[in-house]
Amino acid sequence: MTTRQDITGATPDSAPNFGSRRRAQVKDTLMPDGPPKVLGFAIPVVAALLILLLVTFRLVEYQDVVRVSLTLKTTESSGHSYGEAYLQQGEAAAVRAEQMVDIDLGAYGAAMTRSVQAKVREITAVDMPSFYRVRVDLPPDFDVSSLSSALPGSIQVEAKILTQRKTLFDKLFGAFRVMSRDL
Asked: Which burial class, exposed, middle or buried, applies to 175 when counting CB atoms under 10 A from its CB (0-12, 13-18, 19+)?
């Protein structure tokens, strides 16, 4: 037969171990009674900032560009101005007809017209292996010979072909999307 003292949790005087005789809870000095008020305020603030950052990543857009050195010329027959650039295969793969081109005229342009927008007309292969010629149609009212300080002949200017419009979110996290598709 077992006695009350043999039962785990029993008190030596055989009184029950519940109710008013229950052992007192010892307060943990490292754990406060409730969470600090600052923590209760900081969690929603941090969550709001993360949401704001995510929305910003979704709204901010940028353009992928291919930088080229563009040679401005005029056709002999029609007098229409155009630009030519030669690109390697890797760069030319991103360029398509009808894409916008921002041309920086630099020192050639007048004070008000330092840049011109044009469109890619065509991309063609040339005799050199792995090189492609990109032809850019300049606006009809643009005249190469009217550029200030331009010498007769062709003029070299810097240009950016706008290839792709992306959000900052896609740029930063696009690699994860590609990896998840491969799984």
From this structure: exposed
Whole-angstrom CA distances from 120 to 17, 19, 25, 129, 163 are: 89, 88, 80, 22, 10
Partner residues linked to 138 by β-bridges: none
Give, rounded to a whole angstrom, the gap between the first and last alpha carbons of the chain: 65
Question: At residue 101, what is the residue type?
Answer: V
- pTM of the model as a whole: 0.57
Give pLDDT tens digits for 9-36. 555 666 655 555 556 666 667 766 666 7
Query: How does DSSP classify residue 138?
Result: P
Q: What is 81-116 written as a DSSP string?
A: EEEEEEEEHHHHTT--TT-EEEEE-GGGS-SS-SEE
Best CA proximity match to 169, nearest among 54, 65, 64, 50:
54
Which class for 14: exposed (0-12), middle (13-18), buried (19 or more C-beta within 10 A)? Answer: exposed
Residue type, 19: G
Instruction: Categorise residue 49: left if φ over 0, alpha if ψ from -120 to 50, beta otherwise.
Output: alpha
Q: Cα torsion at 155, 156, 158, 162 (round to 10°)? A: 70
How many whole angstroms separate alpha carbon 143 and alpha carbon 20?
A: 101
Task: Give the position of tokens 């342009």.
Answer: 109
